[in-house]
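Let's study today's protein:

:::
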Amino acid sequence: MLVILKTMALLGFLAALFFHVAAIVGWHSIIQIPELWLLHVLIFPLFIGLVKYARNYEKSEMSLSNLLPGIPVWVFVPVFIIFIYVIANFFFTVGVAGHGLPKIINGQFCLVNKGEIISFISENEYRYFFANQIRMFSGVWLVFYSLPLIYFSLLIRARNYKI
């Protein structure tokens, strides 16, 4: 089960990274892939698994507090950079999205805030704002997929070496 959860976390992280980079470079075709929002939902089984395993090993040598010192530097540094980047990315994208969310209403592209149309926009602007929205969510997904990925990887390694 741990290997399945780790694989799910890895695939989720890679998918989030793909959509994040696609949104940054302006690959606006991602708008046509509505399944990408499943990444938002798939985080939950991973965190349920993480909590379940963390509670099972809470008072053992495989507890989270005993596993954390085992994180190699080559893993810690990129994860730390991802956390810092995600925070900066979040504030940047929220700043851009502060105008409203892109919607198509009656065949017209517009920005909507609290159910009210703020302005009508071009199709290119719609694609830009929609990609920005994906960039914001996918940045957060990077963190929420990396945490279970690291935890399950450490737990599998600890079980293999039987600390």
Q: What stands out?
A: The beta strands are 101-105, 108-113, 116-120. Helices lie at 2-25, 38-56, 64-67, 73-97, 123-161.
